[in-house]
Amino acid sequence: MPRTPTIGYEQFCRVASALLALNGHRLDDLTFARVYEQLGRRGSSQRINDFLKRFKDEYRSGERPGGLSGELEAEMRASAQRITETLQREAQAMIEAERASIQAPLDEARQEAEAAQTASAAVRQQYRDLEDTLQREQEVRAQVERRLSELQRQHDTLTNEHHAIAKESTRLESELSHHAEQLTQRNADNEALQQEVKELRTGRERLMAQVRDLERDLAEAFRETARLTATMKERDAVITQLETRVDHEHRRTAEANRQHQAEEQRRIASETREQCGKQQSEALIAQLEQMEQKHAREIDEMRSALAAAASKRHETDRKMHQLIEYVERLSNQLAAAPKKTRAGKRSRRPPQSER
């Protein structure tokens, strides 16, 4: 027994779509017998029934049965042409059968004339029905062509919209990725800024502690300056007194020298006048020498005191100069500390574009 050729679902959809177009898209007229006849009675009955049920379900749901492509128009035209030719052959066969029945024996013709006329009328009516069917097929073909054109335009429109949506989706994904990178960068910048703020607060507390220490040192330096100033004033007063005493002693020494010279002159004169006063003159000269030695010692002590006072004054001036430099350095540090703090804040402040 020869094997029945296999019918694919796509081929079945083409034949069923052609029959459906010829029947005015009425699913009820799409029967197993008509489809099976157009398929050349090929394929198993169960397979054709399954295909028919699947085709009707897809057609009712609005899907394109079998995923038919743009070759549907040509296939439908070919199927319609085959159906038309089949119908014409059947009509011609019926006409020839009627002619054969008319050419039967005359006795049978006479007896069946009325039946022949009736059959002829039926054939003519069937022929007119066939012409009406062909006209409907042409109208259906025109409707199918218009529908195919409309579907093609809709397909082109949907394709363009799909491309536009795909392009827009790509752009949005790119922007989303870019925004995500910016958000990550901003989060990192915020964390860095928070860390810098903590460091600035710690540095500020440290600077405030240093400022308080510097203020204490400055107050202590001011007190030491005041004490040294008072000590310098006291020493200046002592030095002034010593200088006054030295001047006084210098004058006394000069006066004593003048008196000594006058006494010498008087002694020399008295020696010339009185020889008996020699012992008194010697005693007076010894007394004057002792006085000169005493005055010389006092002058040396005053000079030593002046030298010591000058050395102490020099040392005091040096310490005072060092203290003034230290006070100026502390003042400069106090003045520079807020500037450094503000400069650090400005350097850590993010640019306007990043904020």
TrEMBL record:
It comes from Sediminicurvatus halobius. Gene3D superfamilies: 1.20.5.340. This is KfrA N-terminal DNA-binding domain-containing protein. Keywords: Coiled coil. It holds the Pfam family KfrA_N. Residues 339-349 have a biased composition (Basic residues). InterPro entries: KfrA_DNA-bd_N. Residues 80-231, 278-308 form a coiled coil. The keyword Coiled coil applies. The keyword Coiled coil applies. Residues 16-126 form the KfrA N-terminal DNA-binding domain. Residues 251-278, 331-355 are annotated as: Disordered. Residues 251-276 have a biased composition (Basic and acidic residues).
